[in-house]
What we know:
Layout: H1 3-7, H2 22-35, H3 46-50, E1 56-60, H4 66-74, E2 79-84, H5 87-100, E3 105-109, H6 112-119, E4 125-131, H7 149-158, E5 159-169, H8 172-183, E6 188-190, H9 206-213, E7 219-225
Parallel strand pairs: 1-2, 1-4, 2-3, 4-5
Antiparallel strand pairs: 5-7, 6-7
The structure holds S-adenosylmethionine.
Amino acid sequence: MTLxxxxxxxxxxxxxxxxxxxxxxxxxxxxxxxxGVAYSSEPVDLNAIFGxxxxxxxxxxxxxxxxxxAIAAAHPEHDFLAVEVHAPGIGGLLRRVEKLGLDNxxxxxxxxxxxxxxxxxxxxxxxxxxxxxxxWPKKRHHKRRLLxxxxxxxxxxxxxxxxxxxxxxxxxxxxxxxxxxxxAEPLLINTAADYAPRxxxxxxxxxxxxxxxxxxxxxxxxxxxx
Length: 226
Ligand SMILES: C[S@@+](CC[C@H](N)C(=O)[O-])C[C@H]1O[C@@H](n2cnc3c(N)ncnc32)[C@H](O)[C@@H]1O
């Protein structure tokens, strides 16, 4: 076995080819040159990328972009760096960016673990959102869950003092795991006794509404950097 194979990290996603709708394809091809940011293995100047010094929020795994676009539209005073590996999802986000005329979103198509570790300078984020990370429900896949201690530490280090990490999941055992991982991180302090009430800035998605209607729970976890 070669060294490269031995070192291959456990990813929190499996890259499937994924099907674009024609509209997603069009948005991806025509808008990525404007809103996309190339992955960099060195810290980047986010103020230069957005062309202003406003607070920066990282959106980890923005999916189809429904939530990211809604939050960015409601908060024009903040800048949002969306990180997603799934190209059709990025196409979906970019469609919304154009439709809503947003200029406070940029997108990186890359593994968020690398982006956080290499591309974001320590102490620079006002917040980080990790909404509905892939649950990997089978026990043998739990190692793929994104919000494990090493990633929590890396995220916490990228926050400015007072900056926040906000995670949400509809998987009860993952929620407990997230709460435990954030509690164990000395840089962070919980904003609530345990789970936090959903803040008004996080809109409920269709997916979440359907789950709630069926009696499924959703847990928000919000910690701040000391
Ligand atoms: C279940 S979806 C949730 C999407 C969105 N946050 C929402 O609330 O609707 C999880 C997303 O995270 C993305 N993802 C998983 N691991 C990732 C990683 N390491 N880097 C970037 N994106 C990732 C997946 O491609 C998927 O689109």
